[in-house]
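Dear colleagues,

I hope this message finds you well. In preparation for our joint manuscript, I am sending the Palmitoyltransferase (Fragilariopsis cylindrus CCMP1102) sequence together with its predicted structure, so that both groups work from identical material. I would be grateful if you could confirm receipt.
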Amino acid sequence: MQEFGEDTHRNSSATHDIANSKTGDNRISQPRQSQHRNDDNNQSSATATVASRRRRKKKYAVSTRWEREVAENGPINDFHRYWCCCARRLGNMFVLCERTDGSPIVVAGPCWPFCVFVTLPLILAVSAAVAYFVIINNDSPLPIWVAYIYVPVLGVVLASLFCVSCQDPGLMERVTDEEAGNGGWFWNEQVGSFRPPGALYCRECGVLIQDYDHLCPWTGTGIGRRNMMAFKLFVVGVNVLCYFSIILLYDDMKARLGKQQVYAN
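The corresponding structure tokens are as follows:
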């Protein structure tokens, strides 16, 4: 009987130890589970924050007068509305393609009709006439390798023109925080926003442009920080194309006159 009592006591103590060990494991696992839950909650909140930032579209510094007119009278019915009906309008700028946050990828300026119907046809017409009557003409005394120089120059001019006229010139977001004024920014009444030094309001574009230089009707848009390099390349390229065309015409006329004099003699 004494041995049976000792065995029973041993079994009960072992059972008690096993129960205590399970309780300890549960206590250890509970903090781990709560930590995993906290990590999942933090990840979900971070993902929601990133998604909300992506969904939030940028609000650009546009003319307050234009915004008032649109709010009171609805969309402005003018010449641009019928040609740019699918574009999002920012003042007198027309966003044809944009990112999810509202950043413009392809944007046209207020003078885009002059660029499309004057600048582009003028470049193409003059270049086509020079190429047809001077370079690839069978009677032309010029060598064929001239075409391998003339055509790439024309391509650079057209590409730079597209980059200037269809690129964001440097549209700035509206900043109304007074801390910006304490940081050296200036208040601009036309757009109701603070602006950094160098950023100016373009009356024709109706927006605030960073490092604004001027409005170029030949390219159809304002010139600012983001399209300044393309504008310089366009100016250099169109001058090279112009002088190159003049030199080719002069050489062709000189060669033709020389042939006529030889035939006359």
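For the figure legend, we might mention the following. The longest strand covers residues 93-98. Residues 72 and 152 are 50 Å apart (CA to CA).

With kind regards,
E.M.
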